[in-house]
Automatic annotation (TrEMBL):
Domain HTH lysR-type: 5-62
Taxonomy, superkingdom: Bacteria
Name of the protein this chain belongs to: LysR family transcriptional regulator
Organism: Polaribacter pacificus
Family from the record: Belongs to the LysR transcriptional regulatory family.
Keywords for this protein: DNA-binding, Transcription, Transcription regulation
GO cellular component, one term: protein-DNA complex
GO molecular-function term, one example from the UniProt record: DNA binding
Gene3D superfamilies: Periplasmic binding protein-like II (3.40.190.10), Winged helix-like DNA-binding domain superfamily/Winged helix DNA-binding domain (1.10.10.10)
A Pfam family that the UniProt record links to this protein: LysR_substrate
Keyword Transcription: yes
Amino acid sequence: MSNQIEFRHIRYFLVVAEELHFRRAADRLFISQPGLSKQIKQMEEDLGILLFERHNRKVILTNAGAYLKKELTINLKNIEHTLTHAKLLNDGKNGDLKLGYVGSAMQEVIPDLLMKFKTSFPSIVFSLREMDNEKQIEGLLSYDLDLGFVRLERVPRGLTLKPILKESFCLVLPENHQINADNFKSLMQFKEESFILFDPKYSSSYYEKVMQLFDDSGFSPIVSHNTIHAGSIYKLVENNFGISIVPKSLATKDNPKIKFIELKKAKQKTTLSVVWNTDNRNPILKHIVSLLKN
């Protein structure tokens, strides 16, 4: 590689690779379009690689360009993490860990794990973001996240999935509903009820598992509402807009207007797992993973 390639050339290339449009890329970079085109052309000549196919109305990455975009993005993330880690060390911290999680993980699992993490690594800075499964996978693959807590059966190659909690589902009913734990027999008792469920876009595999509960009970549910937040589900249930099904870990005693019935006999269970990118070079991650495995 020519020693004329500088960091700015890489930045220029990545912006053009994202936009696939030289004018828009130039606007983002606050440089002229002819100047940007010249820099990319010079980069191609120095590397001896054609990065883009240029057509009248569109720009397309070549195979070499697509590969370079992927690898440079990953490596720049690693550089960013390295610089961040160095700054934290300078400030007396041992590092940082970025976690994503589905809402149900925040009830007990994450608080308990964070207490263990903080005991073992008191100088780590933790940042947490509630995200759906798909967004977490994207974040882990792009190195924007270090660790995720998901409800998935499988993950893309390069990620490691470790189950940490297998649990039953629970019915969520208004407090005054005629069915309770004593007279509950099966889901068939709710065949004519409206159900409020987690949006399938939040977790398609989780939604499918809930649907299997109905399949096993011999009917298709009337789904009146979909949402991504347990709080929204509970508010709708308490106001008699329908009933719901949630993981047992989301059952709460803090709301006297709703009640829960655990589906203990149902063969369908839901699993909360922790997931990470095996190529993630965050030096703290290997210690956290070791703690999780133990």
